[in-house]
Amino acid sequence: MQYVLGIDQSTQGTKAVLVDEQGVIAGRADCAHRQIINEQGWISHDLNEIYENVLTVVKDVLKQTAILPEQVAVIGISNQRETTAIWDRSGTPLKYAVVWQCARAREIAQNLSDYGELIRDKTGLPLSPYFPAAKMAWLLQNADIPGEQLSDVCLGTIDSWLIYRMTNGGSFKTDYSNASRTQLFSIRQLQWDEELCDLFDVRIKCLPEVCDSNSLLGMTNLGGILPEKIPIHSAIGDSHGALFGQGCHSSGKIKTTYGTGSSIMMNVGEDYVKSNHGLVTSLAWGIDGKVNYVLEGNINYTGAVISWLKDDVKLISSPGETETAAVLANPADKTVMVPAFSGLSAPYWNDNAKALLYGMSRTTGRNEIIKAALESIAFQINAVLEAMVKDSGIVIRDLRVDGGPTRNRYLMQLQSDLSNVVVEIANTEELSATGAACLAGIGAGIYDKEALFGQENRKRYVPGMEEKQRREKLEEWEKAIRILT
């Protein structure tokens, strides 16, 4: 039996999964890393710690499963996307990595505000310190690098860092999905953009080679864990890996990950689609010489709404209580919650908005407030789906979903009813890691793509709400949004 090793390097930690020849997860191991936060609120990660944790989780999953190292045939990597690293050609980090959440490069982005439209046109992304371009500029300004050594600097996202270390400096590469999130890459010309690199004062020679997501990215024995070097045959951003793992391989296919926030991503095919309705355009991946584009909307508060109910207002003691409370709530109650605790994200983009409970009556109680909070998740995701339809002209028939909140039957049925789509729940929650593993296994010839994705067995929710009731609920949400916007 051969196994594919999937490595998912995420914001909170690193995960390794071993996937067998049938595409079934044989085992997984996890290891958290430090969130380094200083007095200014800057968020950093230690690159050496992350690499060592990769080795740790690989050892752990091999030990846990009793799978022999020589049975591991190929590696796939998924990664937290915009976190940005700087190191020298010897593989020594020159600074801690700047985490995607960190806005320390805000001033750099603000100073380029006159170029916002140019940047969005070339990259599909709004000018923001969220993306690596401004972070790279900040790192170059603050890493104390002598001028004559600048050409020896490597800048990249976490996938590039891991590939570099895993190959002992033999491979400095990234894939199309990660490159498209840097704000330095022309997603129509499919190359690093000289004009953008000049704006941010980043040298192209410091950036990795951009490759297909399923290409041979390097060879590694993981520091001696494996007896022989094996291929790294995929690298892909975590949300893109989940899109691939969900089987959303063609135009019109769409997935939503329900986590602390939510990533909603639609495959729009091989042609660039510009968003005029509050979304961003990126590259899904490059596979066998062809790229696919995506429309994406990210929401700050989805699963975090449930945490607010539990930890802050103490209305529940566990997330599972929300389903029962929603079922028991008065169906005639029209209370709507807009969880704009840190402003409104996609597709509204109002940083000044405040959270709101709207439409309460004298009979609104605990169950009704819990129900409104739970329903706010479905309302927000529906708003992104509606924006995607407007931008793409594609009618959404089904929505593939993953993440912890998908266990909530009330929420999943409501999502199906509000969005008038069939909701299909993935049979695994490890979609970023398994997506990367599947992509690597296909690239290495272990899997047949059609056979692998033809065996999926998903739980489905079908729309059942009357159209009049659906319209009334959506109108109440829109009334609450209009108050804030």
Question: What's the structural blueprint in terms of helices and strands?
Answer:
Layout: E1 3-9, E2 13-19, E3 25-32, E4 36-37, E5 43-45, H1 47-65, E6 72-79, E7 84-88, E8 97-98, H2 106-110, H3 116-123, H4 132-142, E9 153-157, H5 158-166, E10 173-175, H6 176-179, E11 185-186, E12 191-192, H7 194-200, E13 209-211, E14 218-220, E15 230-237, H8 238-245, E16 254-258, E17 262-269, E18 280-287, E19 290-299, H9 303-312, H10 321-328, E20 336-338, E21 356-358, H11 366-392, E22 398-402, H12 409-419, E23 422-425, H13 431-443, H14 449-453, E24 459-461, H15 467-484
Parallel strand pairs: 1-6, 6-15, 10-13, 16-22, 22-23
Antiparallel strand pairs: 1-2, 2-3, 4-5, 5-8, 7-9, 11-12, 14-15, 16-17, 17-19, 18-19, 20-21, 23-24
Helix pairs in contact: 8-13, 9-11, 10-11, 11-12
Give the key terms.
Nucleotidyltransferase, domain 5, 485 residues
Q: Can you give a write-up of this model?
A:
This protein has two domains: 3-237, Nucleotidyltransferase, domain 5; 247-425 and 455-485, Nucleotidyltransferase, domain 5 (2-Layer Sandwich), CATH 3.30.420.40. The model has no long low-confidence stretch (mean pLDDT 95). The protein has 15 helices and 24 strands. Helix 9 runs antiparallel to helix 11 (366-392) and helix 10 (321-328) packs across helix 11. With 485 residues, it is of the alpha+beta class.
> What is the share of helical residues?
25-40%
Known CATH architecture of the largest domain: 2-Layer Sandwich
Here the CATH topology of the largest domain equals: Nucleotidyltransferase, domain 5
The biggest beta sheet reads: 7 strands, mixed
Q: Output the CATH homologous superfamily of the largest domain.
A: ATPase, nucleotide binding domain
End-to-end span in angstroms?
Answer: 57 Å
Tell me the β content.
15-25%
* Low-confidence residue ranges: none
Q: Output mean pLDDT.
A: 95
Q: Would you report the number of β strands?
A: 24
Structure classification: alpha+beta
